[in-house]
């Protein structure tokens, strides 16, 4: 045993026999107890677990076991480094350039590999912040393993974003859980489960009466209308009831006058999951299917999709639509957690799950509004129901609260009309609360007069935020810049959004405030073991997946959308559009998108686990729930987010082109 270093802070406990990788392995089964202990540790630690037995034995026999007391500098930034260090016990802090926190590492974490790969000096100062026992592999052995073992090489890719993209690809590539028939069905293409029966269609020149007779004769409730094989429109039983019988329309009227033009369609190679999302989001029960040439080949129904995905998936929107009261609607939405858990278990990617949950949330808003209007009577002036935040971005998870408001149209007079809209808002908000969407703690609900304004009032409010920004106002107003109409006069919302985004794009001071607010997020770069940056009074030390991980990426995407008046509301769409507009580097957009999908997947898996255990749903993740895979890639995500937040603040402070 030898002691090296000032003050005796570093001890080499034992240098095990190094066997050349190209040498004879005879007798390697006769390991000492010490080598067997190292082997057992390596077999449960990535990336060494991916090595074959011979290479793992070589690592075990070539390792130096070293002890560092708390406070000892293991490697200084700028020093030469010839070791890959694996933490057997204890904790290490990495400071970039010796001054800026880069990471805190715990048991089974590795460090030192970036300088080995670059064959240059260490960029980080590595310090033992607890007494540490390290396994240290010589650089020469590390390089040979990288050359010979693909998985080992990939693990030590310098670029954290590349590892994140591989993590997302791995999750998506795994597809459905083995033995889960619903998962297999989710990925089935539309073409794979078409019945093969001839499609029934009509001509737009038919009269309404002839169309009704054709639908009765063929026993179909939905009729596509085509010319020369091209789909021009669609008519349903509901159209005949509402647009013909209810208004006593002449039956000789051409059906072209009442058909829905440019109907939503789906392709043969689209999946059952895509069909589910379209039907849920659009509140429809039939989808025309077209081939690659655009020709109509079939019409699939909700029952067709139900046959593939199981009754839980489309039952919820159907029950919401049929609900005759807020209580019936609450019964329908109570099934949502189980439906989402089933999708997560089936391996559906997070972006599809958030779209599904958001479509259910939007449908609940719309039906409750209809029920309230049926009770109160028609509105005295035109208006639009809008949502904000995650629902507006199609990124709603489980346990979300409600964020909504009214944009009131021309002719609104507060003295005459406010009582109607206040009553409408109360019925809507109470119904949503009963349906599982909690009252907003920040009071961003139509029940709040500040969220119930005419167009001019909303324009004035946004104009004030943009023209005279201050840090707190920017934080409070950010959610309002994610706005989407759910029901009513969409043109009101379109006018509002166009004006707001034009103002924001042209005000660099406001944009710099938005960027600084985003960059102030406490991203847990020091995330390791049980040490996290968020303390919850009930949960203890936890990771807040929404606030600390997902929200910063949302903020980055929002800033780029506002800076270039990008109309998209979804985070992934904003990242793509920001890259296309030149404000965000394409690789950065791709990396952030991968990080976002990974984090959303972790959140859904966490909430599915809570649901299975009968626990309240939350975004707070205790460290004990994390797998080794998730821990590694969460750390990659945090580093990526922190770097992009710093760049955002720098770019916006310096002006944008």
Automatic annotation (TrEMBL):
User: What are the Cyclic nucleotide-binding domain coordinates in residue numbering?
Assistant: 47-154
The chain positions of domain CBS read 195-251, 259-316
InterPro entries per UniProt? CBS_dom, CBS_dom_sf, cNMP-bd_dom, cNMP-bd_dom_sf, Diverse_CBS-Domain, DUF294_put_nucleoTrafse_sb-bd, GlnD_Uridyltrans_N, NT_sf
Name the SMART domains for this protein: CBS, cNMP
UniProtKB keywords: CBS domain
Q: Name one Pfam family in it.
A: DUF294_C
- Which Gene3D superfamilies has this protein been placed in? CBS-domain, Jelly Rolls
Which protein, by its recorded name, is this? Cyclic nucleotide-binding/CBS domain-containing protein
UniProt source species: Tsuneonella flava
